[in-house]
Amino acid sequence: MKLKHLSTAMILATLPATGVFAAALDRSGQSISAFLQPGNYFEAGLSVLDPTVEGKEAGVTATQREIGDMGDDYMFPSAAVKLQLTDNISFGLLYDQPFGADAKYTGDNVFVSNSNDGVLSAKSIDGIVTKNAIALLQANNQPVNAQTIAAAKAQVQSSPKFQQLAGALNAAKNYLGSSTSSNSTQVEVDTQSLSMVFGFQPNKNLNFYAGPVIQTVKGNVNLRGEAYSVYNGYDADIKETTGTGWLAGAAYQIPEIALKASLTYRSEIDHNVNIKEDLSLLAFPGLANVLAGLGVDPTKLSALSADKKTKITTPQSVNLDFQTGIMANTVAFANVRWVNWKDFSIQPYKFGELSKVLGGAGLVAGKPNGFNLVEYSDDQWSVNAGVGRKLSEQWAGNVSVGWDSGAGNPVTTLGPTEGYWNVGLGAQYSPTPATFIAGGVKYFWLGDAKAQTGAQSGGEDYVAEFKSNNAIAYGLKIGYKF
To answer: Into which family does the record put it (predicted)?
Structure first.
């Protein structure tokens, strides 16, 4: 079997578009494969994703308007260099952009602000009326049942206190979301990672490796539209910050049959970020009337006068990679990845303090301790597998299939898909034994999802549905053995 010198070509051709669309914020797939190449090695690549993510208002949203494509195109580079310093010691630098998000809502829907936006949804207002109606019945020692509640609700709605609240809420229309130049909900998150990997090879079969990881994160989030209630007009500017973590793993190979298996763990990385937050509601002239009508003490919002640091922790992950020769000039390969999204959340300081006030006042059911801007309910599992074959002395190709579990459903409105299935094709051209250029394309069937705001997370309410979406990914990579 002529596989000893061919396995690198077979596998590299699959990599340019491997992980460009995955659950939650996962982007690159954090591959370690470049470090496991024989000898001295360099590669650089560029991946591009073109998603189509469309949906429709649904759930607790009163209207059923269409939502146009909110998934923005994006591209990201990667690079790696690996040096075999001695027969037993190796060193590598791996650069990628492991996590990210790019999305923007446009058109006429609950994620775009306009003059008809209400501060609270009809369901929220009905909940306030019902809560006060029950309190009124209990204060008067009256029975609490459907008939008495209906009568008490009518009494509450006609009261001067509720009329004052209704007037204040009406006055807030056309105000929230008007403090900035953009009326669209949008998010952009970017990370960069540099891994410094040290390897020890006690023999030709085993490779133990570990090293520190430096990671940066930055981003912007703008919430607009009636879906976000009092957060309509919220802006968060996440200043770029740096955190450190580590990775460790082991690999086993039998070069004669192109067998290679590796298991790599990457740690969580903490970032104490400065987030500049703005909230249109706080500048609303009628805020005191709104708070009084909602039963909220205005002094509880004093914490929102200053920005404070927010802790963001990017998740731990495990990658299992495997390849083996299955016949002359042919290898099979597979990658299994786990990412701990279930324990991930983002709660900017002001956002969180306001959520605690709202939850503590009973304005957000089941959230007495507040809620997060973004969180996920499940960990991500993904599998990509395929076959690569040498076609000639200079050409190799591959086919692959992939599956991603997603990170739970319902999911955040800032990334409303749940996993995927994909198919891919790759090709590699080697003009010399030491150089190559590889390209790949993948088509993704994105999983249907119900979209929730932060206030709805963990419950059954949702504001929109996204179905029958797709994405196309392209990748290009060059490599050099020296």
So the answer is: Belongs to the OmpP1/FadL family.
> Cβ(13)–Cβ(386) under 8 Å?
no
pLDDT of residue 188: 95
- Rounded to the nearest 5 percent, the helix, strand and coil shares of the chain are 20, 45, 35
Distances (CA, A) of 99 to 217, 392, 454: 9, 37, 20
Fold annotation for 7-108+183-481: Porin (2.40.160)
Strands 469-481 and 41-52: antiparallel
**Amino acid of residue 116:** N
Is there a contact between 186 and 103 (Cβ–Cβ < 8 Å)? yes
Do 338 and 379 touch, CB atoms closer than 8 A?
yes
CA pair distance 253, 201, nearest whole angstrom? 11
Give the alpha-carbon dihedral of 120, 63, 223, 26, to 10 degrees.
130
The whole-number pLDDT of residue 13 equals 42
For residue 166, which phi and psi values (nearest 5 degrees)? -60, -40
Q: Taking the mean position of all CA atoms in its chain, how far away is CA 334?
A: 24
What is the pLDDT at residue 179?
A: 55
Using an 8 Å Cβ cutoff, are 82 and 161 in contact? no
The SS3 of residue 34 is: helix
Q: What is the pLDDT of residue 21?
A: 67
**CA–CA separation, 58 vs 466, rounded Å?**
10
Provide the residue ranges of all domains of the chain, joining segments of one domain with +.
7-108+183-481, 120-171
Q: Tell me how far CA of residue 312 lies from CA of 21, 176, 303, in angstroms.
A: 22, 27, 20
d(CA 160, CA 157): 8
User: Which residues, 6 or more positions from 391, have their beta carbon under 8 angstroms from its beta carbon?
Assistant: 397
pLDDT for 14: 43
Please tell me the distance from the alpha carbon of residue 179 to that of residue 472, in angstroms, as a whole number: 36
Long-range contacts, 355-363 (Cβ 8 Å, 24+): 355/454, 355/455, 357/296, 357/300, 357/301, 358/230, 358/296, 358/455, 360/300, 361/294, 361/295, 361/296, 362/131, 363/120, 363/124, 363/128, 363/294, 363/296
pLDDT at 178 (0 to 100): 63
> How many CB atoms lie under 10 A from the CB of residue 138?
12
Which residues are paired to 384 by β-bridges? 335, 402
Rounded to an integer, what is the distance from CA 233 to the centroid of its chain? 21
**Residue ranges in the chain whose pLDDT is less than 70:** 1-21, 174, 176-181
Contact 176, 233 (CB under 8 A): yes
Q: What is the residue-averaged pLDDT of the chain?
A: 89
The single-letter DSSP state of residue 327 is: E
**Torsion 359-363-450-458 (CA) sign:** positive
Q: Cα–chain-centroid distance for residue 254?
A: 37
